[in-house]
Amino acid sequence: MYQYVTNLSDLQAYLSGAALVSFDFETAPDEQWRNDPKAALDPHKAHIVGISFSIAEGSAVYLPVAHRTGHNAAPLVEIWQWLAAELFTIPAVTKIAHNLAFESAFLYARGIVAQEPVYDTIAAAQLTLKGNTAFRGLGDSGLKGLVKQLFDVDMPSFEDVTAGRFFDELDPSDPATLNYACADADYALRLYHKFNAWFDRYLPRHRWLVENMESPTAVYCGIMKYNGLLVDAALMEEKAGQCGRELERLRGEIAFMIGDVNIGANASTSAFKRYLYKDLGLPVPKTTAKYQEAVDDEALVLLAEYCAEHRPELAPLFRLVQEYRRWGKIRSTYIDGYARYINPATGRIHTDLLPLATETGRFAARNPNLQNMPRASADDVGVRNFFVAPEGCVLLSLDFSQIELRVGAFYCRDAKMLDTYRTGGDIHDATATVIFGPGQHDKEQRVISKNVNFGTFYGLFPRGLQRTLKLKAGQNVTLEQCERIIANLKAGYPALARWQEETKQQAERTRYVETFLGRRRYLPGITSTDWGKKSFAQRCALNTPIQGTAADMLKLAAGRILAGLSERPWLRPLLQIHDELVFELPEGRVAEAVGFIRQCMEAQPFPAFDVPVIAEAAVGPRFGEMKELEEFPDE
After folding, report:
1. 472, 473, 474, 475 alpha-carbon torsion, rounded to 10°
2. How much is the pTM?
3. What tens digit of pLDDT does each residue of 598-610 get?
4. Cβ count within 10 A of residue 426
């Protein structure tokens, strides 16, 4: 039965004693944004029109709070105070929503930080199977699609109910309005029971992940999206001008060498490809998946190396083309690509953080993908400087130090690796000693050791290592040297090779692999007779437990931070990027913030994890000007 309520006592009577409450917000744009077609989804441009609640299947109430016609609930101040204190933040009630990140952002806009226990049915959907070995993706997890698939019910569409109007223009007592609003909460509760029954039968550990990790992470993601990163638009415009001038200069220099060949925006046109491989007669160092001649970055590096030796007169061309591409990517991805997402209501970019968009459980981002911005060490153009703190505030980041290497050491149980981390040693120096022997190691050896470490646990092959060292580290190492490096690595870390073989064998027996906390990834290709498919599945078997467990550790840390945000309203989570969490806060609160966040990130993630976890802090007025903090305050 669906009904609408307009006073606190009726709402309290409905919710009284409920241990499970699903809820859903209906929203509408603020007056100045009524012409923005997506404004209703943005808590900076929109407001909550009404809230539906459900405590039992087939039952729900709708609380109208900002409709322009009909009757709204009153008194609103008292109602919101009660909801904040007696529902959204208390441990006695599990708060359920479909797309909890959305609801949490609108709550956060009202100063409410939703607290555990929470349950996101979108997260649950993505951790259940849609086939024998395929988990649902975000695109398979919409509420209406799931309800049709799992309950064979056609829910009315927003367009059918609103008929071109905003939701606040509907009368909340109208049966169609009431049914639409209440059904969202009702079916979110039904999905909660449906998914938990599935988890309990097939994958109990995934239920634990949803309840204890992914749902709090969804709340945290909603808060990050709401806060966003403040953009220095003037600097972005200045860099756009610089990019334009550099691209014009480089186009002119390239044209001087190759004539009127059309190179396009990224020097990857068919005309440029024909010029390289047909007109110049250069060898094809690499092909695409469709067996066409490649002109990607790796192909250009290989062509440049060939020309340096055999066609030195062409070497300057490849330097110019690589520089042209670099400036083109800066403009298209980091300037034009970012600028279109600056929110006019805030002057900030509010990226979508997707905590379940990868098979390992690592975050992804979109609209725009701020995770792909250059690292500070490789950001010579200053892309990170586009993001600044407001006056009187600073940006703060805490980054897990070598988290995947630490997780790898935990998994493989190699005594030398574990001892290095437990005694505060340098793992890169330890690996250099394993590969090159004891003593002082020169810069080249350190570079090789670092690059070897980042591929150590994922199965190194001589040719792959040679390519990595050439393209990523600028080191020309022979195949024989790579073979010797890998042999020394396996001999020096004997438990590593054993773990790799045991993990691959276990995955071949079960046809899946799991993180330590139980996130499963199916690997049907691991028994394939096709070497390419089998080899890929074996690499996944090695990297998923490590990358996935590291991702789980970051999400657990985010959950601990979430629990402390209500009493620290000055601490604003902004972004997750790689193994790093970014915040905005007043200048005078840095010591307090670092102590709190560090405590959350360095806490033992689960009882079995016996490798020290280190979070390194950096602070600055701009994201590109972060200075490492040498001392970590404890309070």
Report:
1. -130
2. 0.93
3. 999 999 999 999 9
4. 13
